[in-house]
Every structure is written in structure tokens, then in C-alpha cells.
Design goal:
Elements: E1 20-26, H1 33-43, H2 62-67, E2 74-80, E3 83-89, H3 97-103, E4 109-115, H4 122-133, E5 139-143, H5 152-165, H6 170-173, E6 176-181, E7 186-188, H7 199-208, E8 221-223, E9 226-230, E10 234-243, E11 245-247, E12 251-255, E13 261-265, E14 268-273, E15 276-280, E16 282-284, E17 288-292, E18 302-304, E19 322-327, H8 343-356, E20 361-365, E21 368-376, H9 379-391, E22 396-398, E23 402-403, E24 406-408, E25 411-424, H10 428-437, E26 441-447, E27 452-460, H11 461-464, H12 468-474, E28 480-490, E29 502-505, E30 509-510, H13 513-519, E31 523-525, E32 532-533, E33 537-542, E34 548-550, H14 580-586, E35 591-595, E36 600-604, H15 605-615
Parallel strand pairs: 1-3, 1-4, 4-5, 5-6, 29-34
Antiparallel strand pairs: 2-3, 6-7, 8-10, 8-18, 9-10, 10-17, 11-16, 12-13, 12-18, 14-15, 14-17, 19-21, 19-22, 19-23, 20-21, 22-35, 24-25, 25-27, 25-28, 26-27, 29-33, 30-32, 31-33, 33-36, 35-36
The structure holds guanosine-5'-triphosphate and magnesium ion.
The site of guanosine-5'-triphosphate has 21 residues, from helix 1.
């Protein structure tokens, strides 16, 4: 059965709270949240026949498309029968768990997606524990049942065990289950039911998700949960209306986190119609809306009716675990590529980011005015911000990320992570060996009938840093590695770093094919002919454990007699080019990454300092 096409004007209709459903889709990374939303969007008939709907339509941010993962939680509204369903897509990568924590306050239920082949994974545990803590009763969706080795019964049993383990109440344990394939676009209430469309899931959402609480006759009340930015109206605050309603042009009071009140006029109210933002005249209780007109609004701020001022408790999130120092580029190539190179520019950009990206922390570095510390939830959390800044023409230097230590009973404690690994069995040996070297403790090991070995380790975040590149190489890209914060534990002692040294350029110039050819025997090169290098720049990885100073700019000596054909015979091995994360992952304490819009260069810190001393 196909539902009638919905007109955009539906958005303007007033929905009573009984006709609104607010729900978030949560899961481990890649378990199919965004793809499931594609099917829900398509089958709610909000697209015209000739309208092209992109794959993973909700992943609209450029880095989301490129990386194939969701980074920011985003909401949309779809319509089923006479109901309005506000659905929030959330990221599954552990580094963005702050996004999940934050949006759970908006919804009254979650769809917990579990890959029917893989079963629950570390991030399933995290997001489920958050949902249970909030008192929500999840609907469990065993997803990807079209996969050849899907085993929904096993996945369901493991999910049930996880609920028990996380201390679910009897009510929460009595969860509703459905089976689905977001990719094929069907959901069924029983495993054997005909696989037709998503309607069974739509019906479950209407039937099982409690409607939002709140009284339409009380004064307006809302909390800013997410921020967005619009070129015309500036900053927008998104949240669920907790009580009453709000009209365009109405005055509201904003209470900041510090309790400071200010008066504002609402200039625009927006909701969603599928992928489009649409304007509304009025927002009413239970609905999720974006409000414009409060220029300095911050996450967690309360918005309320001036006649009835209350302050809602602030939104708190788990602390960052990793920090990186961002410094002004003091290298010889400063300003050649990037436009914004001063500390003031960098600081302003970071402060702007902090407003919306609240699991980020920005700190001054004592005694250094050309440096600022950025703290986040993990390497990817930081890398997404750094990549965004690069694209906006910023240029700076990064130090090796450090874990953030906590003093507990006077002793230093460091973050530990649970690391979940899946590799073809033949690669398990080298993985185990390397993780043990990095102070990983194996918790479980299992090989299934398809020769896939699944392992779980508990290890210091520090030990995992720098391992991801290696893991991908060792497993030839076939391995899966995910990790999630576990706890703080007493400092585990020294962890050996990279096994190999680096090749360092002895001076400035352009790399030549001739010089690269002779240096490449020493290890693998990161630069190729024509690349500009400078003294102290890391141009390759040595094949031994010590660092080596090399000359990659040397030209061939001219002789009176031209040896025939000698230049043409040079065959260079392709250079290794780093992505931002790979570069950050690669460096050691005395090394740095130079980030510019077009280049990622590595350098040895002390050599540059020596050079400066010599010059001054
Ligand atoms: N076989 C099969 N593959 C699916 C299904 N749903 C999603 N996939 C695939 O799984 C991969 C991840 O899908 P996404 O929808 O991006 O997963 P996600 O949960 O949104 O991932 P994150 O946002 O990064 O956490 C993609 O390659 C999809 O094509 C499904 O029902 N069946
Ligand atoms: Mg996604």
C-alpha cells in the first residue's frame, strides 16, 4: 500500500502533543541508522516522483559524505497518517557520543538498531546505557536482516543480555522488537512476516512511542539543545517545546547557564519537512523547533515566557579525554598557503566552534601566547574540527595529542578504552602481539565459522594512539577496530612508541627525482619530486629505529660528458601521503604536524628550534 503524497503545508498544521512522536535512532557505528532514515523518508511520501533523494540523505555535511559516517546529530520531520514524527539521526562513532547524550533529552523513545549479523557492539552498550539512564523504553530493531550471515535470534538474545547487564527495569526489559533492512526498505513485526515496506515500523512508532508531555496552556518553556547557524538570521536554537507555545514576533526571556536573563524577540520559527527546513508561524508544546532571534544563545540555555521565568538545569556531558596543542605556524613556509595564520584568528575560530560543539574544551597554555590547547573526545573528534579549519583557509602547527590525566586520591589516572577488533583469523597473531606491546589486556577472543576472529582488549587510550594506521596495514584494510572510553585507571607506565625512526631533510629546496631515488632505499618517502621541503621537515620513515638526516634536494652533478639515458632510468616507489588523522597518529612527542589548506607536513621540533637559534 502506498501512502498519499504529503504537501509541504503539512508543516504549518498545528499538531497536538498526542499527534507528535519524538524519537532518536541510536546504534553502534555503521549499524545502518542513516540508511534506515532514508527508507523512512522515502516511504513517508514527502518527495515528488521526479525528486532525487541522495543516499544517506541526512549525512549532509561535507565531511560526513566523504568519511561515510555521521558526525552531527540531525533532526527531520516526517508524516505518517495524521501524525508528525520528529526523528533524530545520531552518530555511532564513539568520539561523537556527546551528540547522542545531548539529544536524548529531546525524545521520548529511541530506536535501538542492532546489526543482526554482528549483534550488539561497544557503542551499542554506551548508547543503550544512556537511553536507559534517561528512563526511555527503547524499541529494538534488528537491522540488516538481508545480510547473508544475519542471525537475528542470536543478536536478539545478546541484546536482551545487554539490557539485563545494564540494569534495565522490568518495563524496559519488556521491549518491543522488530526486524528490518533499512537498505531494502522493509520492516516486519515477526521474523516470518512478508517483507513489504516500512509500515510496520511506522505503526510501532505511533503505537509504542509515548507522546511528548507538556501542557499547551502553560507559559512557553524550552531548552536550547542544539545550535545551528543561518546566514540571514544568525544563530538558531533547536529544542523541544516543554510547555506552552511560541509565536513569531513573540518576546521571550533567555536565561544563560550563569543565570543571567535577557529579553529577545523571536524572528523565525523553523521546522523540517523531510530534508527541507520550513518556516512556521507557531511552535507548540511537544514539537521540536529551531528559533531565531537570540544572537548569543548557548547550548543548555533556557527560553521562557517573560511572565514566568524559570531556569532549567544545564546540560552536562562527559569530559574530554584527549588534548592537542595548536600553535602558530613558525616554520619557513608560513603563510604561503593559508590565509588565517595568527593566534587571534585561530582562537576566535575555536571559540566559535565551542559554542555549538560543547563536548570540546579550549584552554590557554600557560606561559605560551602562540599556543592554545583543544580538548576533545578522541582523535576523530579533533580531526573533524581541524579538517574544517583547513578548509576555511587556516594554517597552524599541531603537537602530538596527549591523554588528559585525572588526579584521583592524589595519584595520576589515565583513560582506558575497550577496544573491539574483528579481523580475518590469519591476521589475529600480529594484532595481539602489537596490542600486548602497547599494554592492551585481552578480555575475549572468539573465532566464528567464517574464520573471523573477534577480540576485545582493555587498554590505555595512550597505547591505542598511533596504532590505527598500523592496524589497517597489517590487516590489509580488512580489519574493523572500534574503541570506547571505559574508565580511568592508575597510570600504566611507559608505552613504547613507533618502532621506526624518520628521515629528516637537511635543508630547504625542492625535492628532486635523483635525490629521492637514492634516499628511498633507506625507508619509505612522504615527498616526491617537486615537493618543497625545509630543514627539519620529516620526509620519510626510516627502515631502522633511528632518525636519519637526508638530502632529498640534491641535483645530479653535471659532467662534461652526458651519460646517455641515466636520468630516464629512475623509478620511484610511490610516496606515502598522509591524511590528517594518519599524520596525527604517526608523530611522536618531539614531532609536529604542519596543517595548511593544501598540505600536511611533518616536522621534527628540535631541529627547527636549533635552526632558529642559529639564525638569531
Ligand atoms: N546489507 C545491508 N547493509 C546495510 C543496511 N543498512 C545499511 N547498510 C550498509 O551499512 C553501511 C553503513 O550504513 P549507515 O546508514 O551509514 O550506518 P550508520 O549507522 O548511519 O553509521 P554512522 O552514522 O557512521 O554511525 C552502509 O554501507 C550501508 O549501505 C541493511 O539493511 N542491509
Ligand atoms: Mg549515520
Amino acid at each position: 500500500m502506498s501512502l498519499p503524497f504529503k504537501e509541504e503545508s503539512m508543516q504549518d498544521q498545528k499538531f497536538k502533543p498526542e499527534k507528535i512522536r519524538n524519537i532518536a535512532i541510536i546504534a553502534h557505528i555503521d549499524h545502518g541508522k542513516t540508511t534506515m532514515l532514508d527508507s523512512l523518508l522515502k516511504q513517508s511520501n514527502i518527495f515528488r516522483d521526479n525528486e532525487k533523494v541522495p543516499e544517506r540523505a541526512m549525512d549532509s555535511y561535507d565531511q560526513e559524505k566523504e568519511r561515510g559516517i555521521t558526525i552531527f546529530a540531525k533532526h527531520t520531520s516526517i508524516y505518517f497518517k495524521d501524525y508528525k514524527i520528529n526523528i533524530i539521526d545520531t552518530p555511532g562513532h564513539a568520539d561523537f557520543s556527546g551528540e547522542v547524550e545531548r539529544v536524548l533529552g529531546l525524545v521520548n523513545c529511541v530506536l535501538l538498531l542492532v546489526d543482526a549479523q554482528e549483534g550488539p557492539m561497544p557503542q551499542t552498550r554506551f548508547v543503550l546505557s544512556q537511553a536507559l539512564k534517561m528512563g526511555l523504553r527503547p524499541i529494538v530493531v534488528l537491522n540488516k536482516i538481508d545480510r547473508p550471515h544475519a542471525n537475528p535470534d542470536r543478536a536478539l538474545n545478546l541484546t536482551f543480555d545487554l539490557f539485563v547487564e545494564l540494569g534495565a527495569t522490568d518495563e524496559q526489559l519488556d521491549f518491543t522488537v522488530c526486524y528490518a533492512s533499512g537498505l531494502s526498505g522493509f520492516a516486519t513485526k515477526e521474523l516470518g512476516d512478508p517483507r513489504v515496506n516500512m509500515e510496520p515500523l511506522f505503526e510501532l512508532i505511533i503505537e509504542k512511542v509515548p507522546h511528548p508531555p507538556g501542557n499547551p496552556d502553560l507559559p512557553f518553556l524550552m531548552q536550547a539543545t542544539t545550535l545551528s547557524y543561518d546566514d540571514f538570521v544568525g544563530r538558531q536554537a533547536c529544542g523541544r517545546i516543554l510547555e506552552g507555545s511560541v509565536k513569531k514576533g513573540q518576546n521571550v526571556t533567555r536565561i544563560s547557564n550563569t543565570g543571567h536573563p535577557s529579553q529577545h524577540k523571536i524572528v523565525r520559527i523553523e521546522g523540517y519537512f523531510g530534508l527541507k527546513k520550513t518556516e512556521m508561524e507557531e511552535g507548540s508544546v511537544g514539537d521540536i523547533v529551531s528559533l531565531s532571534g537570540i544572537p548569543d544563545i548557548m547550548i543548555g540555555d533556557t527560553l521562557c515566557d517573560p511572565s514566568h521565568v524559570v531556569q532549567l538545569p544545564p546540560i552536562t556531558l562527559a569530559e574530554p579525554t584527549l588534548s592537542v596543542e595548536m600553535m602558530v605556524n613558525n616554520g619557513p613556509m608560513v603563510g604561503k598557503d593559508g590565509k588565517h595564520v595568527t593566534m587571534n584568528k585561530i582562537r576566535d575560530r575555536l571559540m566559535l566552534e565551542k559554542r555549538a560543539n560543547i563536548s570540546l574544551k579550549i584552554e590557554e597554555v600557560e606561559g605560551k601566547d602562540d599556543s592554545i590547547r583543544v580538548c576533545g573526545r578522541g582523535e576523530l573528534h579533533l580531526a573533524v574540527l581541524i579538517e574544517a579549519m583547513r578548509r576555511e583557509d587556516y594554517e597552524f602547527i599541531l603537537s602530538k595529542p596527549k591523554v588528559i590525566l585525572k588526579k584521583i586520591d592524589g595519584a595520576d589516572h589515565e583513560p582506558l578504552e575497550t577496544v573491539h577488533i574483528e579481523v580475518p583469523q590469519e591476521f589475529s597473531g600480529p594484532v595481539i602481539e602489537e596490542l600486548s606491546r602497547r599494554k592492551g589486556e585481552m578480555r575475549s577472543l572468539e573465532t566464528n565459522e567464517h574464520d573471523i576472529t573477534t577480540m576485545e582488549f582493555l587498554m590505555p587510550t595512550r597505547g591505542l594512539m598511533g596504532y590505527r594506521n598500523d592496524f589497517m596495514t597489517v590487516t590489509r584494510g580488512l580489519g574493523i577496530l572500534t574503541s570506547i572510553f571505559h574508565s580511568y585507571s592508575p597510570w600504566k607506565g611507559t608505552i613504547p612508541g613507533r618502532l621506526r625512526g624518520v628521515l629528516i631533510s637537511n635543508g630547504p629546496g625542492k625535492a628532486t627525482a635523483y635525490a629521492c631515488f637514492s634516499v628511498q632505499e633507506r625507508g619509505s618517502l612522504f615527498v616526491g619530486p617537486g615537493d618543497e621541503v625545509y630543514e627539519g621537515m620529516i620526509v620519510g620513515e626510516h627502515s631502522r629505529d633511528n632518525d636519519l638526516i637526508v638530502n632529498v634536494t640534491r641535483g645530479k652533478q653535471l659532467t662534461n660528458v652526458r651519460a646517455s639515458g641515466s636520468d630516464e632510468n629512475i623509478i620511484l616507489t610511490p610516496q606515502r601521503r598522509f591524511t590528517l588523522e594518519q599524520a596525527i597518529d604517526f608523530i611522536e612527542d618531539d614531532e609536529q604536524v604542519e596543517v595548511t589548506p593544501r598540505f600536511i607536513r611533518l616536522r621534527k621540533r628540535f631541529l627547527l628550534e636549533n635552526e632558529r637559534k642559529r639564525k638569531s
